[in-house]
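Blinded run. Sample ID left blank on purpose so nobody reads anything into the name before looking at the predicted structure. Input follows.
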Amino acid sequence: MSTDPVNWRGVAVRTVTVVACLVVLLVLVAPGELGVLTPLAFLRIPIDALLAIGLMVVLAPRARRIAAWTLGITFGLLAVVKIISLGFSMALDRSFDPVYDWPFLEAGVDFLAQSSGRAAAIGAVIGALLLTAAVVTLVALAFVRTTRLAVRHRPMTIRVLVAGALAWVVCLVAAVQLVPNVPVASRDYFDRLARVNTSLRDREAFNAASAVDAFAGTPNDQLLTALRGKDMALVFIESYGRVALDDPSMGPQIRALLDDGSDRLRAAGFGSRSGFLTSPTAGGGSWLAHATMLSGLWVNNQQRYRQLLAGDRLTLTAAFQKASWRTVAVMPGTNQQWPEGGQFFGYDRIYTATDLGYHGPRFSFSSMPDQFTLAAFQRSEEAGTAHSPLMAMIPLTSSHGPWNPVPPLVDWNTIGDGSAFQEVKGAGAQDAMLGSDRVNADYERAIAYSLQSLVSYVEKYGDENLVLVFLGDHQPSTAVTGTKASRDVPITIVARDPAVLERVSGWGWTDGLRPGPQAPVWRMDTFRDRFLTAFG
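Blinded prediction complete.
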């Protein structure tokens, strides 16, 4: 029996080397989307690693050191992008686009500041920067150590590289996948570069689409002729997605609520029709959905949004403005000036959160309850007689995640400055597990509140001139929908004048506030042209 002492230093060195190799391998084979993050998804052959190590083997020592650190830092940045992409897939159900998606990170910080406080947002930013530096450094060090091992055992390395390359080619040709949409022949680094190139070319594609506008030259007196004298309200309900109707746990309650709302509005003399639209976004990015709905263009990233604002596209709101409607935007989620609202979208007046005069308690992310937003709109615009006709765009934010707490409904006559709203006792942080009963229940209550507020508003203030179109901006996050859900959102038109609903009779929409399962599904960018055609 040997009594030689264990060389713990040698064991530690070999352990660190093995861990370094595993870190590099993990970075290059790990999926960047939550929906495919399973153990089998890591069983892949990364051509990126094979080529990188092969390059290290053939380079001279000085060039090798420079290349090792350069590639190591690059792979570290790839790791950061993959981590961000996992977060994106959890919130927005898609991977991160490093060209266009940086504004979403700023929006995420703003969301955290509004829902958890400024200190939490600052702490999150500092933590994210430190984590980024740590990840890049760790991966770079791991790659440098891996290259040293490869060079030290050059003959064995070459044999492993040749065998790995042959296996990669076989898996590529045979399209081997142990997990759907995750090829065993991995090339994540090159795929990311290709995606960047595709994103950069998207500018030309959007410019080409923007150049086609069937209504650009329509005379003002021919726009929206069938709505003369009507007051139009376009209301976006935050995160009101198809999952609210179809999910087995919440669907029965929301469908019953919509059916009850249909009956109540019918008793008040209003008819309604409902269908579905496919949003360009999910989980967040409401402004992209708003822009898509109003412009008739598919605005699914921030670059397209900026391009849109730099052009002269006729928006739905600008069409109302040209046709002599007073146009207003009621923006409870906007805390600063929004010059693009008047310059591009065509609003005569923009009410930001500070303009609405709310002095009640805050409910999670939303700066004010939906019922107050609608009451403030009524008080500021609809109560007067000089406004007619009026077109208003109103995003409702009470159903913005996190969906706890939910405001109570109060008597419209007691709303005042919002002091009638009381803090909800016992509201706590929410469990963000995918599909958890608590998250679904909180989401259901929030959507129910927004819908009830809107139905109650129409009952209280609606008249024969009101035409209301309300819809979801996008589906909620994957915490509610799970991964790979549709991007469909319900849309409804409400009016007391039967001639208005007759204009959309050819759309095939379902009678009532609840679209049936067979109701047509259109892309959101098609609505502008359909609406202008139906009422022009």
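Unblinding after everyone has recorded impressions. Residues 231-413+433-509+516-535 form a domain with the Alkaline Phosphatase, subunit A fold (CATH 3.40.720.10).
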